[in-house]
Design goal:
mainly alpha; 0% strand; single chain
Length: 65
């Protein structure tokens, strides 16, 4: 396989959090059928389980409530 160069900023994770995408789609009026609050809770659980910081802007905001 050929290698692919990813033009990301140094330190960028290269990924987008699902919570942030669902929030964006909801804001655009696009129905996803996904419960944003449950998704954010799951993201918080996963990051705590693996001992990594939650990098989702929406997930962090909802966890602070």
């Amino acid at each position: 396989m050929a290698s692919v160069v990813c033009p990301t900023t140094k330190g960028a994770s290269g990924n987008v959090a699902s919570e942030d995408v669902v929030y964006l789609l909801n804001g655009l009026g696009i129905e996803t059928g996904i419960d944003l609050y449950k998704l954010a809770e799951t993201g918080t659980w996963i990051t705590q389980s693996i001992g990594r910081p939650n990098r989702s802007k929406v997930g962090v905001a909802l966890a602070a409530k």
